C-alpha cells in the first residue's frame, strides 16, 4: 500500500541541495515527457490544476487547487496532492503533499537558476513577499548558495518580521525593509513571490542583478513593472523556466516583449558553455511545470542511504 504523506513528511524527502541536483538531472533526461497541464477555472475565481508527467520509471499527476480568495483567511491558497506511480507495475507508490512539493520545487528551481545564472550568488538577497514561497526561497537560497545577508519586504509587517526572525535563526543577517525598490539598489539577488496583483518592483536594476520572479504564472498576473522587464531585456538577459512560460509569463507579456527568443533552463543545461560570461542583469521568469514536480517525485522515491 502506498504512503499518504503530510507536509512535514513530504519536506523530509525533498532536501533542497538534493532537489536542486535532481532538477538539473531531469533537464537532460530524454525519457521525460510532460503533457500540457489542464487549468480549469472554478466558481469564485479559483482554478483546478491537473499536471501529469512521466519518465522511464515514474509517472505523476499533481492535482491542486489555487484559490486566491483564501488569502488572509487561514486557509492555504494552494491545496492538493501529487500522486506518484511506478510506470512498470502501475502501482501507486506515494501521495505527496501538493503545497509542500509546489513550494519546495519552485524555490529549488529558482536556486538552480541562481546557481547557473546569477552574477553575484552571495547576495545580499531581497525577498518580496513573506508567505510560503518567501520562506521556501529563503531556505533554498540559504542552503544552496553562499548567502549571508537578506532583506524582507511584505505588505504584512508581521509576516516580514517572522520571516526575518527565521532568517536569523538560520545564521543570516536579516532586516525588514519597507521600500523594496530602494532595497533593490543594494541587493544583487532578488526574489518576488507575491500574490501578483500589482507591481512590487519597478526601479532600475543593478548591472550584476539576478531577479527570480515566481508569483505571476498567468498572462493576467504581474509583479514586475514593464519598464524593469524591458530594461533587463535591453541590458542583460531574460531566462524562462520552460518554454511554456512563453504564453504564461504575465510580467513579460504585459511588458510587450517577444518571448520567442528567450532561453530556458533546459537550453542552459544542454549548452552551458555558450551561455557563460554574459554581461548585464538577469531576469529569471518561473511559471511552473509538471516536470519540476516529477523531479521532486523522483527524489522522494529514490533509495535513501
From TrEMBL:
It comes from the Bacteria. One of its GO terms (cellular component) is cytoplasm. InterPro entries: NAD(P)-bd_dom_sf, ODC_Mu_crystall, ODC_N. PANTHER family: KETIMINE REDUCTASE MU-CRYSTALLIN. This is Delta(1)-pyrroline-2-carboxylate reductase family protein.
Amino acid at each position: 500500500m502506498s504512503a499518504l504523506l503530510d507536509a512535514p513528511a513530504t519536506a523530509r524527502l525533498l532536501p533542497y541541495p538534493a532537489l536542486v541536483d535532481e532538477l538539473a538531472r531531469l533537464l537532460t533526461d530524454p525519457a521525460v515527457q510532460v503533457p500540457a497541464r489542464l487549468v480549469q477555472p472554478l466558481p469564485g475565481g479559483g482554478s483546478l490544476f491537473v499536471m501529469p508527467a512521466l519518465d522511464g520509471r515514474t509517472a505523476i499527476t499533481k492535482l491542486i487547487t489555487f484559490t486566491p480568495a483564501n488569502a488572509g483567511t487561514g486557509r492555504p491558497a494552494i491545496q492538493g496532492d501529487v500522486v506518484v506511480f511506478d510506470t512498470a507495475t502501475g502501482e501507486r507508490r506515494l501521495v505527496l503533499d501538493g503545497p509542500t512539493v509546489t513550494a519546495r520545487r519552485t524555490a529549488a528551481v529558482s536556486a538552480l537558476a541562481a546557481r547557473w545564472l546569477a552574477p553575484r550568488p552571495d547576495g545580499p538577497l531581497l525577498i518580496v513577499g513573506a508567505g510560503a514561497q518567501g520562506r521556501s526561497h529563503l531556505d533554498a537560497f540559504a542552503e544552496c548558495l553562499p548567502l549571508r545577508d537578506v532583506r524582507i519586504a511584505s505588505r504584512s509587517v508581521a509576516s516580514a518580521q517572522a520571516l526575518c526572525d527565521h532568517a536569523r535563526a538560520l545564521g543570516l543577517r536579516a532586516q525588514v525593509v519597507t521600500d523594496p525598490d530602494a532595497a533593490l539598489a543594494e541587493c544583487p539577488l532578488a526574489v518576488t513571490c507575491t500574490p501578483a496583483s500589482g507591481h512590487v518592483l519597478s526601479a532600475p536594476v543593478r548591472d550584476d542583478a539576478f531577479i527570480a520572479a515566481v508569483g505571476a504564472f498567468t498572462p493576467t498576473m504581474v509583479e514586475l513593472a514593464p519598464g524593469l522587464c524591458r530594461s533587463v531585456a535591453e541590458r542583460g538577459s531574460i531566462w524562462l523556466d520552460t518554454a511554456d512560460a512563453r504564453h504564461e509569463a504575465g510580467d513579460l507579456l504585459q511588458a510587450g516583449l517577444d518571448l520567442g527568443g528567450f532561453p530556458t533552463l533546459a537550453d542552459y543545461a544542454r549548452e552551458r558553455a555558450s551561455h557563460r560570461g554574459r554581461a548585464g542583469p538577469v531576469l529569471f521568469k518561473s511559471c511552473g511545470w509538471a516536470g519540476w514536480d516529477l523531479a521532486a517525485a523522483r527524489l522522494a522515491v529514490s533509495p535513501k542511504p
